[in-house]
Amino acid sequence: MYTRLLTPKWLLLHLLVAVLFVATFFLGYWQLSKAEAGGGAVNWSYALQWPLYGFMGLWFYIRMLRIELHRDPDEGAPGNQVVLYQRPRIDTTGDPELAAYNAYLAELNERALGQGLSTKRSSNGR
């Protein structure tokens, strides 16, 4: 179950999150030292915010891990389901130019799908 989290991609992500989590505490300590040296209210607020950013990022990462562990591993794999193609209906009511254009588009669509070749050959008598 946990083997999915031991692939090279996930190991690199684990390492990155750990480094960033520790870095937020160093940044918080740096802002705290600036605030104690007379930096002002902004430095005091950043001294509190950096560790909060670290815990928030860790919380999101743990949620992402839980989602990955509960995900079906074959969810994104292509299946053998048959997808039926439904031909578009051609609107022949109303504007004759629009109806002609829609018929032209339908013909192009059938040619692209390779379905129009057999009907054209039979209508031409070949």
Automatic annotation (TrEMBL):
Q: Which domain of life is it from?
A: Bacteria
Q: Which residues cross the membrane?
A: 12-32, 44-62
Alphabetically list the UniProt keywords: Membrane, Transmembrane, Transmembrane helix
Q: What is this protein called?
A: DNA-binding transcriptional regulator of glucitol operon
Q: Which organism is it from?
A: Blastococcus jejuensis
